[in-house]
């Protein structure tokens, strides 16, 4: 019997010729990722009581992103603790004020096909878009990883998600993943891996593939993998990775617990309505809902391609009166690129506020929180009650194009209206 990508990576990580779904393995961890909010200040006590010696200072990566820039003294204290801890442990890789951790570790070449990446953040699964087995763990579990470089994992069953055909203009990876989550349900893939495949996936840029993997956890999945290809190598080479890299691909006769088939050419823009990510409807049935704020950013959809799409829609126009449009590039690198391309000027002239790369507004941690009764259209990955502030607020999720079109009209709007002349 053949093996899936997850099975192959976990066989390698546990030094076995083969493993199958359901096996419990001791896996060696290639990258242990922590961020400020769920990092050192939580693990330090247990870590020190158990010896306090890191398994490998080259493999532990910390990114301060959730408390940046700090809005309260408590956040400033957490940030300081994190920074001091990274210094005390003499870590080779500590990043702060650069953007959300998942984007930052991808840009710095820490994410590579075949690696096992465990992080104290649920969206660690984003690294699956580059072919890594990546998943979120709790801070307590992280203590064991920091000390030993290993942890036990149950090899997940895999659900295959096949997208064939060509995406129509104005429809993006975000719409694909929202549709997939709608069908799976927000707990429909619990402890299972998603594997995205098919011609529509192969045709996606790396930036777009990362959107799919990022949101795998919103269906409860352990991870969301995409078979690596030459595009992945180009992405890594552009980020200074020169090593030879082994690709782990699923065998033809690998066993899947379930397969879902989709035709991308039939898809229309999708919107997740409050307060669950699987409460997804085509934009045509949600349009007209009035918003107070739009948010374009996050590790899900704050990359350069996302900002380019928004700039295309907003160029030479003004956002609707009375609403706020927060734009947060997903990293400093993306900020600089957007600045070079004149995108930040276009967005600012349209009336948007461009904030520094951070998790701050995505989860209502440091900025952009909403009050009772306020409504947001967001390009992020979660719309849980209270996600961006008041539990009496409402968050809708859509693609960057849907977010930009909504900013123009002040109400949820089909982006194809601005991208395709004469179609709507
Ligand atoms: C703060 C943390 C619990 C969280 C996560 O793990 O995903 C955050 O990054 C998010 O997106 O909600
Ligand atoms: S989902 Fe938002 S809060 Fe969570 S890591 Fe990504 S940008 Fe940060």
TrEMBL record:
Keywords: 4Fe-4S, Amino-acid biosynthesis, Branched-chain amino acid biosynthesis, Iron, Iron-sulfur, Leucine biosynthesis, Lyase, Metal-binding. One of its GO terms (biological process) is L-leucine biosynthetic process. This is 3-isopropylmalate dehydratase large subunit. It is an enzyme of class 4 (lyase). PANTHER family: HOMOACONITASE, MITOCHONDRIAL (PTHR43822:SF2), HOMOACONITASE, MITOCHONDRIAL-RELATED (PTHR43822). Residues 75-285, 286-410 form the Aconitase/3-isopropylmalate dehydratase large subunit alpha/beta/alpha domain. It comes from Neobacillus cucumis. Pathway: Amino-acid biosynthesis; L-leucine biosynthesis; L-leucine from 3-methyl-2-oxobutanoate: step 2/4. Heterodimer of LeuC and LeuD. InterPro entries: Acnase/IPM_dHydase_lsu_aba_1/3, Acoase/IPM_deHydtase_lsu_aba, Aconitase_4Fe-4S_BS, Aconitase_4Fe-4S_dom, HAcnase/IPMdehydase_lsu_prok, Homoacnase/IPMdehydase_lsu, IPM_dehydratase_rel_enz, IPMI_cat. Its cofactor is [4Fe-4S] cluster. One of its GO terms (molecular function) is aconitate hydratase activity. Its EC number is 4.2.1.33. Binds 1 [4Fe-4S] cluster per subunit. NCBIfam families: hacA_fam, IPMI_arch, PRK00402.1. [4Fe-4S] cluster binds at residues 299, 359, 362. It catalyses: citrate = D-threo-isocitrate; (2R,3S)-3-isopropylmalate = (2S)-2-isopropylmalate. SUPFAM superfamilies: Aconitase iron-sulfur domain. The keyword Isomerase does not apply. Belongs to the aconitase/IPM isomerase family. LeuC type 2 subfamily. Catalyzes the isomerization between 2-isopropylmalate and 3-isopropylmalate, via the formation of 2-isopropylmaleate. It holds the Pfam family Aconitase.
């Amino acid at each position: 019997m053949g093996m899936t990508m997850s099975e192959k990576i976990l066989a390698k990580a546990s030094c076995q010729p083969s493993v199958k779904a359901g096996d419990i393995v001791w896996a060696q961890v290639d990258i242990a990722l922590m961020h400020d909010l769920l990092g050192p200040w939580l693990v330090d006590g247990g870590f020190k009581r158990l010896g306090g010696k890191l398994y490998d200072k080259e493999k532990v990566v910390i990114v301060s992103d959730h408390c940046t820039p700090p809005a309260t003294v408590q956040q400033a204290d957490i940030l300081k603790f994190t920074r001091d801890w990274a210094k005390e442990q003499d870590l080779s890789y500590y990043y702060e004020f650069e953007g959300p951790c998942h984007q930052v570790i991808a840009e710095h070449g820490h994410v590579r096909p075949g690696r096992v990446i465990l992080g104290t953040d649920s969206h660690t699964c984003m690294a699956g878009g580059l072919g890594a087995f990546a998943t979120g763990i709790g801070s307590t579990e992280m203590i064991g990883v920091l000390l030993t470089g290993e942890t036990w994992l149950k090899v997940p069953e895999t659900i295959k998600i096949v997208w064939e055909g060509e995406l129509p203009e104005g429809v993006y990876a975000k719409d694909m993943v929202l549709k997939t989550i709608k069908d799976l349900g927000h707990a429909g893939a619990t402890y299972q891996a998603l594997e995205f495949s098919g011609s529509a996936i192969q045709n996606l840029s790396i930036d777009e593939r990362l959107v799919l993997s990022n949101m795998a956890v919103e269906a409860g999945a352990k991870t969301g993998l995409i078979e690596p290809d030459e595009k992945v190598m180009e992405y890594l080479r552009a980020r200074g990775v020169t090593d030879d890299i082994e690709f782990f691909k699923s065998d033809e006769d690998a066993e899947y617990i379930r397969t879902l088939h989709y035709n991308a050419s039939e898809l229309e823009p999708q919107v997740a309505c409050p307060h669950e990510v699987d409460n997804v409807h085509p934009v045509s049935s949600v349009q007209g809902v009035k918003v107070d704020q739009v948010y374009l950013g996050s590790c899900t959809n704050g990359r350069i391609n996302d900002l380019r799409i928004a700039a295309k829609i907003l160029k030479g126009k003004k956002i609707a009166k009375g609403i706020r449009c927060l734009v947060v590039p997903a990293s400093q690198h993306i900020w600089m690129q957007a600045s070079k391309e004149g995108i930040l000027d276009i967005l600012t002239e349209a009336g948007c506020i461009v904030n520094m790369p951070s998790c701050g507004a995505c989860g209502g941690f440091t900025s952009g929180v909403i009050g009772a009764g306020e409504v947001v259209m967001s390009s992020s990955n979660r719309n849980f009650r209270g996600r961006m502030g008041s539990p009496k607020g409402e968050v809708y999720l859509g693609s960057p194009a849907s977010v930009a079109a909504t900013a123009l009209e002040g109400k949820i709007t089909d982006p194809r209206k601005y991208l395709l002349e004469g179609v709507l």
